[in-house]
């Protein structure tokens, strides 16, 4: 449904009254499920509990939580009560967590048992320490024990334009920026998901990505909310359980990142698995470029259609998607615009010709309100005519499909020639034993920069450097091919799962010889 005029609260209320017995969420570890009516009662309890805490005005309701019941209820319950919610990312580490808590002006932090030590390490770095509220290890949250008044009274009735989410970007350089999303922008991100993937009330999605990340928050949760469908939320991704969750819980779609697809490709499977996946309409890949070789091999092995997409924190996740029809997919492209507008243009807003490279820019009701306490960054993030500048480089073909070539800050410039790292990645992934690959720049006294590549090999397999050199030489010639190769057990990633090329540049800029850490 089109979310115009709605808030998270109004949609939950509408479904609780119209479809009270329809299952909204299922948690496989505990076997607990809640209907729309039951879930509304629970988020009302959260909102009431938060109201009784008398938090200072405009401070976020903050949580440091793994996936599961407590995280989902705090996330939607806080918004239901008109609060601004912040789910901090545990993978960011204690130093970044301390910065996020201080910058966001957090005064109270809900923490589950597995993250209490991390919280204490972060708080040790702060002069003004937020109050820690431990959540029980069995996922029974404090609001469940606080009781629910017979007549629910909301502390505030949110409006579509009200701030609902504060989420910090996982940038490759500098401090993370706090992105503010409203009820409207979050719901339009969910609507973009519904439109692109033709979600219907009978669908059921599997959410294995972290609820502290915009992908899970918007694609999985808001997509489900807007389409009045269902969601299955395990505590975390597990290779050994992924397909049983899909089959046993009758999931019709799932949202993952390319690394998860790689892990699933590397795992042993039931030889009859393909025949058990008839109800799965599609799988969705985002957060990083999906190598065409992995895309094709995954679809062939599992008999499923994988839809490559693209979204970022500032656009409430989805802004590009391949159509649901596999015949309309273009390998190597995250697709066309659904629900918002996308263009390829320069910093002044001048649109380039089809097939020419420039910056990917987006406009729509899913775009963020702005950066928290950073008006200068907010101003710089938009073109003069109001389009959000993603910082991604790409090209658009005559059919409107976008092809990402790299990041503005990650572009390799060798002897004055621009080389897109993504093009090299795609060649490296053609080797069947490459699990992860990333091209990145290194300083060079002759060319300014030269091309390097980092590779993680599939467990138990071997990839000779000579084979990769030959592969790249044949595909792109000696000038554009990597001159140095580094073999690692795992490539560095940000909290969202994206490989951090600039970290690789920092790490290997002063090395004199090729390094192998396999």
Question: Explain this structure to me?
Answer:
The chain has a 9-stranded mixed beta sheet with strand order 2-1-10-9-11-12-13-14-15, with helices on both faces. The protein contains 15 helices and 25 strands. It has 2 domains: 8-396, ANL, N-terminal domain (Rossmann fold, 3-Layer(aba) Sandwich), CATH 3.40.50; 410-508, ANL, C-terminal domain (GMP Synthetase, Chain A, domain 3), CATH 3.30.300.30. β23 and β24 form a beta hairpin. The relative contact order is 0.09. It starts with 7 loop residues before the first helix and ends in a 10-residue tail after the last helix. The chain is globular, with a radius of gyration of 23 Å. It is of the alpha/beta class. α1 packs antiparallel against α2, α4 (93-103) crosses α5 (116-123) and α10 crosses α11.
> How far is the N terminus from the C terminus?
50 Å
Report strand order across the widest sheet: 2-1-10-9-11-12-13-14-15
Q: Which parts are unreliable, with pLDDT below 50 for 5 consecutive residues or more?
A: 513-518
Supply Rg: 23 Å
CATH classification class of the largest domain: Alpha Beta
Main beta sheet: 9 strands, mixed
Query: Helical element count?
Result: 15
> Could you please say which CATH topology of the largest domain applies here?
Rossmann fold
């Amino acid at each position: 449904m089109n979310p115009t005029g709605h808030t998270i609260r109004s949609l939950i209320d509408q479904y609780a009254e119209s479809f009270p017995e329809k299952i909204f969420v299922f948690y496989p570890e505990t076997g607990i499920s809640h209907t729309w009516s039951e879930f509304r009662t629970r988020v009302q309890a959260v909102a009431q509990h938060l109201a009784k805490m008398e938090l200072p005005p405009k401070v976020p309701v903050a949580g440091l939580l793994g996936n599961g019941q407590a995280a989902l209820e705090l996330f939607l319950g806080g918004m239901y009560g008109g609060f601004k919610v912040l789910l901090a990312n545990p993978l960011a580490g204690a130093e970044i967590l301390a910065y996020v808590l201080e910058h966001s002006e957090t005064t109270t932090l809900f923490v589950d048992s597995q993250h209490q030590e991390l919280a204490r390490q972060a708080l040790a770095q702060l002069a003004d320490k937020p109050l820690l509220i431990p959540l029980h290890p069995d996922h029974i949250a404090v609001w469940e024990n606080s009781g629910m008044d017979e007549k629910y009274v909301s502390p505030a009735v949110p409006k579509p334009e009200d701030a609902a989410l504060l989420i910090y970007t996982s940038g490759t350089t500098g401090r993370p920026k706090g992105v503010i999303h409203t009820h409207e922008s979050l719901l339009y991100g969910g609507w973009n998901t519904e439109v692109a993937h033709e979600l219907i009330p009978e669908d059921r999605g599997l959410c294995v990505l972290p609820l502290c990340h915009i992908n899970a928050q918007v694609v999985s949760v808001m997509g489900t909310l807007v389409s009045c469908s269902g969601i299955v939320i395990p505590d975390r991704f597990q290779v050994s359980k992924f397909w049983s969750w899909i089959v046993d819980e009758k999931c019709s779609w799932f949202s993952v990142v390319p690394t998860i697809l790689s892990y699933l490709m590397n795992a042993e499977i039931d030889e009859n698995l393909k025949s058990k996946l008839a109800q799965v309409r599609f799988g969705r890949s985002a957060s990083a470029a999906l190598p065409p070789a992995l895309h094709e091999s995954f679809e062939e092995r599992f008999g499923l259609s994988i839809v490559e997409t693209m979204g970022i924190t500032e656009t409430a996740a989805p802004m590009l998607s391949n159509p649901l029809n596999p015949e309309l997919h273009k390998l190597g492209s995250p697709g066309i615009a659904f629900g918002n507008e996308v263009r390829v243009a320069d910093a002044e807003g001048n649109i380039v010709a089809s097939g020419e490279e420039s910056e990917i820019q987006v406009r729509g009701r899913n775009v963020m309100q702005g950066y928290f306490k950073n008006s200068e960054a907010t101003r710089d993030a938009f073109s003069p005519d109001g389009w959000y500048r993603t910082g991604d480089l790409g090209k658009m073909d005559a059919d409107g499909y976008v092809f990402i070539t790299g990041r503005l800050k990650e572009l390799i410039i060798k002897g004055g020639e621009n080389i897109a790292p993504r093009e090299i990645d795609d060649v490296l992934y053609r080797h069947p034993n490459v699990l992860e690959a990333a091209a990145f720049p290194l300083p060079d006294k002759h060319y300014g920069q030269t091309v390097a590549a980092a590779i993680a090999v599939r467990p138990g397999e071997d990839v000779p450097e000579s084979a990769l050199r030959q592969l790249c030489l044949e595909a792109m010639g000696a000038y554009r091919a990597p001159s140095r190769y580094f073999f690692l057990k795992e490539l560095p990633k940000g909290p969202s799962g994206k490989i951090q090329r600039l970290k690789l540049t920092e790490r290997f800029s002063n090395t004199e010889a090729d390094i192998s850490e396999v």
